[in-house]
Structure formats: C-alpha cells, structure tokens
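Problem 12. The chain below contains 136 residues. Write out its predicted structure in token notation.
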Amino acid sequence: MKSEKNYLIKDLANKTQLSTDTIRFYEKKQLIQPSFRAANNYRHYDDETLKRLIFIKRCRALDMSLKEIELLIQLEQKPEQDCCAVNNVIDEHLTHIERKISELQKFQLQLQQLRQSCATQTTIDHCQILKQLESC
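Solution.
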C-alpha cells in the first residue's frame, strides 16, 4: 500500500517554487483541488496535486495558455485515447509561438530603426525617437 503525502499550500509553494496566490488561482480555475479540508479549514493536497502543479508550471514555462493546459489535463484523463489530440494541441501552440516570434522580430526591427534615428547627442526636446513616436 503506497502512502500518500499531505501537503499544505505553503509546502506546495516551496516544492514547486510557485506562490501561494498562484496555487490558489489554479485551484479557483479548477486545475487542481485539495484532497480534503482539515477541521481548522486548512486545505490539504496530495502527491497528484504536486504532480499536476509541476505539469502546469512546465506548460506555463512554454507559454501555454490556461485553456491549452486545461485541454491537456482533460486529455490526460482519457489514457486509452489516441495521443494525436495532444499532438494537435502542441502543433497549434507551436503555430502561435511562430507567429509571436515573427511579431517580435518586427518589433525588434522597428526599435532598431527608431534607435538609428537618434545618432547624435541632443536634448530631449530635439530627440528624433520621441518625435517619431509622437507623429501620426
């Protein structure tokens, strides 16, 4: 018989390096649930919750949305299902990331052009960067 550990929210925060507010937020979004509440009304969490929080943290580190994470969690609840549904979530996210990278590269180019417009030492009231940002 395997023994389940019980964690308080501060224990989960320490183990996952997430803030207690973040853990409460994930609970409010129903991505995790406490295994039980003690008589003192403290929430207690189990090893599965710890695992789930690590999963969520890794997904968030990959810039996945809560909706994408929720979908992956739902898919995980159907272990006999074909994993192509997981691949589809990742493929869609990859497309989103590729668009974001393209957009950031455009921002980078615009900022480099802005920076080049102010190559001489001058005063703020003659700053070409500010003038370009203010113009229509």
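Discussion. The beta strands are 36-37, 43-44. Students who got a different answer should revisit the alignment rule from Section 12.3.
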